[in-house]
Amino acid sequence: MREIIDAAALREMLLCANAALEENKQKINELNVFPVPDGDTGTNMSLTMNSAAIELGRKQTETVGAVADCAASALLRGARGNSGVILSLLFRGIAKSLKGRETASVAEFAAAVSAGVDAAYKAVMKPAEGTILTVSRLGAQAAVAFAKDSTDFEGMLDALLVAAREALADTQNINPVLRRAGVVDAGGEGFVLVMDAMLGYLQGRTAAPVTAAAPAAAQAPKEGADFSEFDTGEITFGYCTEFIVARENSKSPELLRSFLKNLGDCVVVVDDDEIIKVHVHTNVPGEVLTEALTYGPLQTVKIENMRNQHTALSGKDAAPEAAAGTAAEAEAEPEVAKPEKQFGVVAVSAGEGMANLFRELGVDRVVTGGQTMNPSTEDILTEVNKTPAEVVFVLPNNKNIIMAAQQCIPLSDKKVIVIPTKTVPQGITAMLSFDPASAEDVIEAELSAAIESVHTAQITYAARDSDFDGHDIHKGEYLALMDGALLGSDADLDKVLTRIADAANDLDPEIVSIYYGEDVQGDAAQHAADLLGERLPMADVNVVNGGQPVYYYMISFE
Fold this sequence. Notes:
By secondary structure, the protein is of the alpha+beta class. It has helices spanning 7-29, 41-58, 64-78, 81-98, 106-123, 132-147, 153-174, 176-181, 186-203, 253-261, 285-292, 327-331, 352-360, 377-385, 402-406, 424-432, 440-452, 493-505, 522-535; strands at residues 4-5, 104-105, 239-246, 264-271, 275-282, 298-305, 310-313, 341-349, 365-368, 389-395, 415-418, 455-461, 466-468, 471-473, 478-482, 485-490, 511-516, 540-545, 553-557. The chain has a 6-stranded mixed beta sheet. Helix 4 crosses helix 5 (106-123). The radius of gyration is 24 Å and the shape is globular.
């Protein structure tokens, strides 16, 4: 009977989990009942876990704590889609609980899994039950209960899996869409596969490959996940306060987090062995900094008066340096660009036409990605850091990328503000409203307000046969969505366009912008514009070559 695991065992357990997700990612993908070609949860979780496997192959780790920390760090940066972010948060909590441990006992590992669940729930603004959160929570509870009476490591993981599988089956009862489709939650299925593979290694029934290979960039995955939206909320406090404090005592950062929640909002607290990094909006920055000093000396401080449109900064570069003037210098751009201006923008987009449009509107950096190609947190963070600005606004332009973008906030030395754009047309409208001469809080408020006025229709194809929300959908048909809701499908594209026009008629739009994809010819796009123009005679209809994949048309109504 195994009573502890050491570094070597945990490393192999994680590599087995990676192999299991890679082998079963399509099985998880097929649990997605929404028939759009969004790639799904299995691909997201597999790519996220693969980042940990690659990093574990690069580093020599000699303790359980070091293995867990190495994996968690890689997972955070490699997280793709909401499902990948949740997975990374689970392992980040595990790593914090195992920090500094040579080995892990049954009770210690069970407590670590429970800590991982707590970390995931705390990070998600609107936790949705009937998902991976529920499955992992009930599994962790069973593991902790088992560990009170036994030191059998395999028995503990088996108890976890029994409870997790029961919770997974129950997701159909919690989520009526899953019940109608006769499937379980995809993220929960992924969690069960991960834990089963880890137990399988201990039991000798699973083995990890010798090395973990990085996914080919040319084979960008089709991604997607169905989780609740995670909004940033309104700013109601006057001072944006950011600082780094050195840790000189054992006071828990959680106490600081609780203190800050009573004095403000938009609280982010990230810690490691040496520092605590904090971001908070508050009306009493002095009280915040006084409390911070009880943890150790302040290393950096930045306070912005958002109400008075005045910025008072400490530890900031006095003047931006001149931009490099030669082509050679441009090619050798630094990993972190020095600020040449106060505000910059990063947008996520697929298709050269869309990328060019964003650049023309003032976007500094474009992250290639979107539906079926969710970029990782690291992908977004790289472009944030290369943006020559002090404050970087990020436009995810896809609901399944918002959470990955938000993970960049504590990872960059630049201030990162995520505007929760769910579609590319929302991102374009946001850029049309972007005024870099305004104050930071004004810009954020204006961008957030602007995207609320945009309604987006999308035409793609049905990836599978489905009976969804009363619609009998057949694979390969044109599929119409309006603001993410399914309007229906048909083999006749004109009928789909007409259905969209009828739905848009109630919106009384003044401007209709049609962005056509890489599989659509210009004359066909003009035909679509003529059809919409006839149905919406009071609207000004524009046609733009977006060149985007997956979607034949993305249409904004304003």
